[in-house]
Automatic annotation (TrEMBL):
Localisation: Membrane
Keywords: Membrane, Transmembrane, Transmembrane helix
Annotated InterPro entries: Neuro-gated_channel_TM_sf, TET_plant, Tetraspanin/Peripherin, Tetraspanin_CS
Protein name: Tetraspanin-8
TM helices/strands, residue ranges: 6-30, 42-64, 70-96, 231-249
Topology of this chain in the membrane: Multi-pass membrane protein
Gene designation: TET8_1
PANTHER family: TETRASPANIN-8-RELATED (PTHR32191)
Family: Belongs to the tetraspanin (TM4SF) family.
């Protein structure tokens, strides 16, 4: 008689197998439709993730429903390693995103971001891959809405709640004390300062702006920090789910061994 735990493992893995199909399809679609370096960078990890889920799901289905004990053992081993990996990543994500935050500026709706305020590990990763990231940011046209708002008055712009990337990449730092002309057009004045290295990198050219600035890197890090914290919370929920599935899988594995022993000694 088929045991309840074996059925549950089979059903749960059928669900994950079905989920893997659109993931693989999405990766293949990205590989054919990609127009930017960012999209091409994502295609392989997405396909690899989908194939991994597919193979693990098949191992769980065959191992539990067809009573293939060694395959179910492999499935449980992979699940255990995945739980361990997710647990370590979750702790790591909370540690590296603990530092850094935007600085509020008096009279401004947006914040300023400093690259040095964030985790050293994240800083090194961004510096190492900045050429690729720089290209991605330009392709994403994050400053497009500001460029189109060329008629925005200074008082209205200073009240804007800009995103971290818009604040860091699309306008000069507040330290520069440049004169506002439009959201992406600023001019130097006798009172302007170049103490901050970002000030000399600023350009009114739409494809340049402050994409090469440290503040742009800081804006990216602030985005990464927020995203990683959300991922870490989701990981905790997913970990609980995996532990439940792993526990049910252990019961199914025990059932398989008992059934095999019963067949061996009638």
């Amino acid at each position: 008689m088929v045991r309840c735990s074996n059925n549950l493992v089979g059903i749960l893995n059928i669900v994950t197998l079905l989920i893997s199909i659109p993931i693989i399809g999405g990766g293949i679609w990205l590989s054919r439709q990609a127009n930017t370096e960012c999209e091409r960078f994502l295609e392989r990890p997405v396909i690899a993730l989908g194939v991994f889920i597919l193979l693990v799901s098949l191992a769980g289905i065959i191992g539990s429903c067809c009573r293939v004990t060694w395959l179910l053992w492999v499935y449980l081993l992979v699940m255990f390693l995945l739980i361990l990996l997710l647990f370590c990543f979750t702790i790591f994500a909370f540690v590296v995103t603990n530092k850094g935050a935007g600085e509020k500026i008096s009279g401004k709706g947006y914040k300023e971001y400093r690259f040095g305020d964030y985790s050293n590990w994240l800083q090194k990763r961004v510096d190492k891959n900045w050429n690729r990231i720089h290209s991605c940011l330009q392709d994403s046209k994050i400053c497009q809405s500001l460029i189109q708002g060329s008629n925005t008055k200074a008082d209205d712009f200073f009240k804007e709640h800009l995103s971290a990337l818009q604040s860091g990449c699309c306008k000069p730092s507040n330290d520069c004390n440049f004169e506002y002309v439009s959201p992406t057009n600023w001019t130097r004045t006798p009172s302007s300062s170049l103490v901050n290295p970002d000030c000399s990198k600023w350009s009114n050219e739409p494809n340049v702006l402050c994409y090469g600035c440290q503040s742009c890197k800081a804006g990216l890090l602030d985005n990464i920090k927020s995203d990683w914290k959300r991922v870490a919370v989701l990981n905790i929920i997913f970990l609980i789910f995996l532990i439940i599935v792993y526990s049910i899988g252990c019961c199914a594995f025990r059932n398989n061994r008992e059934d095999n022993a019963w067949k061996r000694y009638p």
